[in-house]
Amino acid sequence: DRQPILAIDGPAGAGKSTVARQVAQALGLLYLDTGAMYRAVTWMVLQSGIAVTDQAAIAELVSQCDIVLESGNSLNQSSLPEKSLDARSDARSLPTLNVWINGHEVTAAIRSVEVTAHVSTIAAQPIVRQELVRRQQAYGRRGGIVMDGRDIGTHVFPDAELKIFLTASVEERARRRQQEWQSQGQMHLSGADLEQAIRDRDRIDSTRRVSPLRKADDAIEIQTDNLSIDEVTAKIVDLYRQTL
Ligand code: C5P
Prior knowledge:
Bound molecules: cytidine-5'-monophosphate
Strand order of the largest sheet: 2-7-1-8-9
Shape: globular
């Protein structure tokens, strides 16, 4: 018996993680950013000098890596949720969720253009998904959680009580990302390059053989081009309260 699970999936840059964090805060639920796990593994692969296509080396790395997301929740096989689920109340301090892998603090580093450019290639490898999905399922097994990613409603928790599929046009997603960079005083890619990077990631994520990005049949799609973060959050909070 478990508490409800809220799955939020969608393409790159649709605002999933910000919305998911706000929803978790509003509803007093745990939050797990599964993309951060794939990003952390990617950072570690790049850092280790392993080729992003070297599946054997990556398999070994992912099976041994210690990933920790803020709130002290180790996602290792060795330390499973019992304790960590009590950390509920401090699980989501907006705006940053700190991320560590093998003791390296990688919160900012996993958002780099380089990690972003390679993460989909690594996330497409079956062995990587198998290991990270297993940790996600262990972490969420008691429910009471919002999880965002690409395959939560279709694969990680196909029985989630509420599934949301967040979308926005590529142009809008690129515009938001640039705004975010601007607000941080950075500008990593020009508009056209950024749109291309988003398209590339969408293509790899939705055409991979193992649990590709797609809307679950029973997911509710929210097209967010003309909605603010707060409006999307409010909509999902309403849906949650209606459903559960
Ligand atoms: O959500 P975010 O953009 O941080 O995810 C980074 C990448 O991680 C995605 O483009 C995708 O390749 C991978 N990912 C995934 N499955 C998830 C979450 C993320 O394959 N559940």
